[in-house]
Amino acid sequence: MERRTLLRATLSGVGAGAAALGGLSAPSLAQNTRARTLRFVPQANLTSLDPIWTTATVTGNHGYYVFDTLYAVDSRNRPQPQMAEGHEVLDDGRRWRFRLREGLRFHDSTPVRAADCIASIKRWCVRDPFGQLLARAVAEWRAVDDRTFEAVLRRPFPLMLDALAKPDASVCFIMPERLASTEATRAITEMIGSGPYRFVPGEYNSGSRVVYERFDGYVPRQEPPERASGGKVAHIPRIEWHVIPDASTAAAALTNGEIDWWERPLSDLRSALSRSRDIRQEILDVEGRMALMRLNCLQPPFDDVRLRRAVRLSVAQGDYMRAAQGDDTTLWNECRSLYPRRTPYYRDNPDLMPGSLDAARAALREAGYTNARTVIINPTDFPDIGPLGQVTADALRRAGMNIDLAESDWGTVIQRRNSREPVERGGWSIFHTTGSANTYGSPAMSPLIRGAGEAGWFGWWKSDRAEALTAEWVDAPDEAARARLAGEIGRLALEEVATVPLGQFTIRTAFRRDLTGMLEGSTPYPWNIRRT
User: Fold this and answer.
1) Distance between CA atoms of 188 and 175, rounded to whole angstroms?
2) pTM beyond 0.85
3) Using alpha carbons only, what angle is made at residue 432 by residues 347 and 289, rounded to the nearest 5 degrees?
4) How many CB atoms lie within 10 A of CB 361?
5) 325 and 271 in contact (C-beta within 8 Å)?
6) Nearest alpha-carbon partner for 494 in 334, 297, 339
7) H or E element: which one contains 68?
8) CA pair distance 502, 500, nearest whole angstrom
9) For residue 284, what are the CA distances in angstroms to 154, 243, 288?
10) Most buried of 25, 215, 233, 424 (most Cβ within 10 A)?
11) pLDDT (tens digit, 9 = 90+) per residue, 62-119?
């Protein structure tokens, strides 16, 4: 495809540019420094530090370093105690009592208290779809003592632990009460958590470097680590994130030993990396990721569902996957569903997504489209996402739409997508992103199918029917009823174009062979890793 050719043309050879690595040390590192420091290239620049305020994956990954959770899922997605010592379910399911483990401390040496947990859960509930369901069921959160707190419920909420253990995007991280009391619509910039690593603010330089140091006051659990659960033992004293937008430069740095781990190698460079004996490439996130298009339902032109449907009709998922992930079809699949493949509620919907520009043109004519300007905000520094926006711009122009492809860095995209203004005042019409398939497997967790309007995810699709069906799903008496309701929600959201799925893919992460102990999961967890 021409888009892949253009992308390749922007890359210099694998060996070029290594000397221009901003912030990286020369290859002749002292052995003790190398043993104590892991140098990591993240998927994108870390512009927002608050993992509750934004759903950006890179910020969630950062959150796992700094913060911990009350519960976390294991390799089978079962909730396990993490900061919690345990819990009791009382009063026929209308009261949950939680007890914290002994010795939990924040990075500022203050103890973790019940009040911190309550404030953190309340703030998370404002932002997260699962949290919003939980908040409706809770009459009161109350501290019993410094290590014990309770949730008093209006009605039983059997998914309590699933909510508190929710992985990947918008995780219920625990912060000090003074930070968690910040309004949920305002981002926190002070990073004080109780996780295995502490954020080093004096060495943070957005666009260049992020530094974490092992928190010696962290008390890990005794169980073996699985995903985000179990014992989070930080063997590496210092981890540096080096932001390297140019893929060929990152490849050269990994090959030369100037970095240790590249989270998401560009598909065009995987074969070159495989020729080095010192580099391993593995799929750690076996469930994969979804590529997504999100439309702004608040503002023209996509406040008109007929125009959203025209866009959906145009989407040929193979074009998107080849542009972003390459020609290796073992690493991606089409997925015409808002539930990912290999999840219980996945159902294909070929009738809703024929991938036809002719059908899109006809739908635009029928809707009376009048050449309204459509702004696609799109990153230039995110290889998994940038090509998605370019494919959309090309397809919709050919379908007859007036497209403005507004390209910038990813940090600008995630800031601009907060705007609810019309495009004439800095707003947007379409953005693209990717997310963990694990996050989108149920109506409770997935923001893609929730119709909460302005209280929901960027795009702000509103559907009272979807919200009512989700509430029924939570209270359903058995799995058969849940499957029926989930299918109805997923079909409704795709019919009304809450989100357009663009395909599902897996990533081969690349790292130096002397690193061991990487854990499976959708996040590059920093614990359990050793250098041999």
Assistant:
1) 10
2) yes
3) 50
4) 18
5) no
6) 339
7) strand 68-69
8) 6
9) 40, 21, 9
10) 215
11) 999 999 999 999 998 899 999 999 999 999 999 999 999 999 999 999 999 999 999 9
